[in-house]
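The protein record filed here.
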Amino acid sequence: MGKRAATARGRGRGRGAPSRRGRARRRPLAPLLVLGLLVGVLSIGAGAAIAHWRSGGTAAGSAAPAGTPRAEPLMSPDTSPSADPEPSASASPRPTVSASPKMSPPASGPPRVPASGKGTFTVAQATGAATGTGTLRRYKVEVEDGIDLSARQAAAEIEDILAHPRGWAAHGRGRFQLVSSNADFVIRIATPVTADRLCLAQGLNTRGELNCETVEGVVVNLKRWMLGSPTFAGTPAEYRHLIINHEVGHEIGIRQHMGCPGPGRPAPVMMQQIKGLNGCVSNAWPHDEDGTYLTGPPA
């Protein structure tokens, strides 16, 4: 009986209770089941998060705290690094971006000014009404060929400058009229090389930088017209007032350049402001807002 009982106990241990080796093999099943459940839960949560991100709202069952600003995604769905699992059958490839008139031009610096042009000129075909009082002076505007500047637009701008309330015409210094022929003087806008040539014919060295007055009229350096002056505290458009008013000032008989009347005061329009202000403040008009002529000591 002891042998049989011993045999029975041996058989019972072999069939009913797993051995130490058997228990070692079966023990990882429980952690694996737990891990599998966690992966499933995380997958469901990730799917909900992706759906929430695409919709841009809050996930179902959760509300954002009051006063919390809506968070925008860092990337739009179009630039998501992963493709949609079920793309639409009607989806088309993203078109490539090409330049078109509707696109805004990229930010850039100052406009490029050509150093030279063709040396010939186009006359602005425009006629305006006479402005001001006194002696009538008819002028025409010419722009050098081969540059990106409309003669007609330049003429319209010059006409506005001469009719400005603080200009020469508004204070009895003369009447001015834009014409396309039979002019008393001409205002030419030329590239630096051409401007130098025209000015040098009058014995004036403008060094590719300055404007000048000739026997025919005014030569405006395109560089100054487009870029203004580094010493002038204003826009290029405002500096054009100074160019025209200064050179037309010579045309109406003001031969002498002027200096700064004192620190902090407006620079006279007949001062060569591009050469420095000497303590004065930039100014583009012959008169102040009260109609007082702005003058200074002889330069």
In short: The radius of gyration is 42 Å. The chain has a mean pLDDT of 75. The first strand starts at residue 121 and ends at 123. The CA atoms of residues 100 and 106 lie 12 Å apart.
